[in-house]
Amino acid sequence: MAIGIFRNHFNFKVTRTQRSILALVYMLFSATLAAQTVPENFKQLTDSLITTAPSSFTAIHKVMRAHRTDSLYMRFFRQRSKEIGYMAGESYALSELGRTYRNISNYSKAIALHQEALAIAKKADNLEFKISSLNYLGVVYRRTSSVRTAMDFNQQALELAEAVKNPSEGIKRSINVSLNSVGNLYLTLKQYDLAISYFERSIKLEAELNNILGLAINHQNIGKCQEELGALDQALENYSISLSYNQDINNTMGRVICKNSIAKVYIKKEKYQEALRLIKGTMPMAMQLGNSFLIARLYNNLGWAQMKMHQNEDAEQSLLEGYSVGEKHNLRDELAQTSHLLSELYEVKKDYQKALNFKTKAISLDQEILNEGTIRYVNEILFRYDYEKKGNEIAVLAKQNEIVNLKLRKNRTLLLIGALSLILLAGILYILYRQYQLSNEKKILTLEQTMLRSQMNPHFLFNSLNSIKLYIINNEKKNAVHYLNKFSKLVRKILEASSQREIPLAEELETVELYMNIENIRFSNEINFKINISEDIDVHTIKLPSLILQPFLENALWHGLSSKEGEKNITLDVTSGEDGFINIAITDDGVGRDKAEQIKESKVLKRKSIGIDITKERLANFSKDYQNSFHVEIIDIYNDSNLPAGTKILLHIPTI
Predict the structure, then answer these.
(1) Distance from chain centroid for Cα 533
(2) CB 74 within 8 Å of CB 93
(3) Do residues 481 and 519 lie in contact, with contact meaning Cβ atoms separated by under 8 Å?
(4) Which residue among 321, 448, 552, 573 is least packed, with the fewest CB closer than 10 Å?
(5) How does strand 527-533 pair with strand 568-576?
(6) Cβ-contact 322, 341 below 8 angstroms
């Protein structure tokens, strides 16, 4: 309506960005005209609340809940509370003002207000408001992808809240906010299983409190994790549950978030028309809210759907709108996603310079948001918290045990001796068990780290980048962009897979195919690599340890084929084995093991391969969870003249 007034009066065309700005200005202007002064009934409500002066967040919230999104009312409540010296009321008003600014993406203003609310809560020594202010700060910093800072605030809030023996309803709600926030941080770090565990903990507590909004938020977040894990039907189910909850409480922002997420799943399921209808129907609600976080995400999905439907000009306009919103409000996560999509779009449009620029920007943002240092920092904080929490619990248990022992001592000395003996024995057994468990965990961690180093060895990285650099020097832009995309995708897949104990066979095959494509550059594209999969094999359901096939392929390349002249072939065959096994065969037509060993001995610099030994150890650990055990066969291949004609590696991997 507001946009129509401006357009009809001045007779000019407005862009989408201009429409959203005009809508926001119109709403603010209308609100100012409608409420030049605070109504008398709200003044009376405020005075009544200040007179009773409740100190809990929940008590104040029950009175102010209907007015908390009105910045004029909250400023009045803050000022009146400040005049009277009612610190709990002042802290509440500042928190809700900060929340309002957060929802219209004015993050710097929101942070300043939440910090002021925290300072007042500390001055009043009000634990409930300290916890809520810390949580609010964590949410704002998470919106700007400042993972470390967000984790600091949410973890402080969780520690304070869980230290209370008999928490109030407000503190229980704060625990849920903290759990949800930590889960979201794990989601940002792509550690989806950990994120789901936090969201499920929060759902149980929200159900106890009958908090419909909290249930909606957690189901939405679980759906997002499932979507990232590829479980699209499960994700749709959780998104639909969340949407139903948001409709029950008439939460516009929640409806926008859910519908946008459902549209994204539709795109992944190739239901592009349904996705477009849903996004276009949702965009006006997001514009009315003025939330740039949601607007940027909607533009991203709109552009993605248009790109999939080959509406490239519309897609470019939508994605650039989303990029502009993300850049204006420093939404790094959205900027990274938009940059990836723009890179793909410009590659389709054969504008390779722009494609390369946006791909470089996307990779830089991904590394900035999700880097090893951040993950390690977050995990260290959580480990330290869990360790201290368990230490406190053990201390409490020790005191209780001491009281029990004193009572027993009054009765029978023999019973005391027996009890102490049992406790000592149990402690020794527990320590021995924990040492054994920690030893195994350390061994697995060492194997995973060594495996990652072997996958990402400097020689491979250096040679791959040199090959891409050669394309650039020779002005072969298309090849340079093509292989740079493959190289970045391979590196990302190796890093993602290294954090998972098991992955689907489909992902493993995709990773090794990327690896072979990159290595083939260095062999001047002389290698013929083929993957054959039996029809009775479902590569999406079969699980195996991540990154186990690459060492065998590397061995075949450098020991079997590197010294061979002429045609070079490697095949990878996946077939069903005996009951409870699948067979993976890697066959090369190289010089054979004996000849390869002779060549290796004659070299001055010998290439030391440890990847296969590490892989065997990892397969051994993997097999412990199954009834059957893996085994590896190395078969020498001979031609009709009984001369070496290659090597076959046959892996028998258990599935039950």
Answers:
(1) 31
(2) yes
(3) no
(4) 573
(5) parallel
(6) no
Residues 6+ apart with CB under 8 A from 263: 274, 275, 278, 279, 282, 301, 305
> What phi and psi, each to the nearest 5 degrees, are found at residue 318?
-65, -45
Name the one residue in this structure whose structure tokens are 């097999």.
Answer: 623
The whole domain housing 300 covers 251-370
Same domain? 259 vs 363:
yes
* SS3 label, residue 574: strand
**Residue 579 Rama label (left phi>0; alpha psi -120 to 50; beta):** beta
Report which of 187, 251, 193, 254 is spatially closest to residue 224, judged by C-alpha positions: 187
Name the domain count of the chain.
4
Element (H, E) at 583: strand 581-588
Q: Which residues pair with 583 in a beta bridge?
A: 575, 652
CATH number at residue 534: 3.30.565.10
pLDDT digit string (tens) for 65-85? 888 888 899 999 999 999 999
Whether 81 contacts 50, CB under 8 Å: yes
Residue 5 burial by CB count (10 A; 0-12/13-18/19+): exposed, middle or buried? exposed
Residue among 305, 307, 339, 308 at smallest CA distance from 323: 339
For residues 265 and 339, state if they share a domain. yes
**Residue 200: other Cβ atoms inside 10 A:** 13
Pairwise CA distance, residues 320 & 51, whole Å: 53
Return the amino acid letter for 609. S
CB 98 within 8 A of CB 64: no
pLDDT in tens, 309-366: 999 999 899 999 989 988 888 887 788 888 899 888 888 888 888 888 888 888 888 7
Residues 51 and 17 placed together within one structural domain of the fold: no
In the chain, which residues have pLDDT < 70? 1-36, 369-410, 436-463, 498, 600-611, 625, 627
Q: Residues 110-137, buried b or exposed e (16+ Cβ, 10 A)? A: bbebbebbbebbeebebbbbbbbbbbbb
Q: Hey, what long-range contacts does 178-182 have (CB within 8 A, 24 or more apart)?
A: 178/135, 178/138, 178/154, 179/205, 180/214, 180/217, 180/218, 180/221, 181/135, 181/138, 181/139, 181/142, 181/150, 181/154, 182/151, 182/154, 182/155, 182/158, 182/382
Residue 435: inside a domain? no
Is pTM beyond 0.90? Reply is no
| Phi, psi for residue 583 in degrees, rounded to 5 | -110, 130
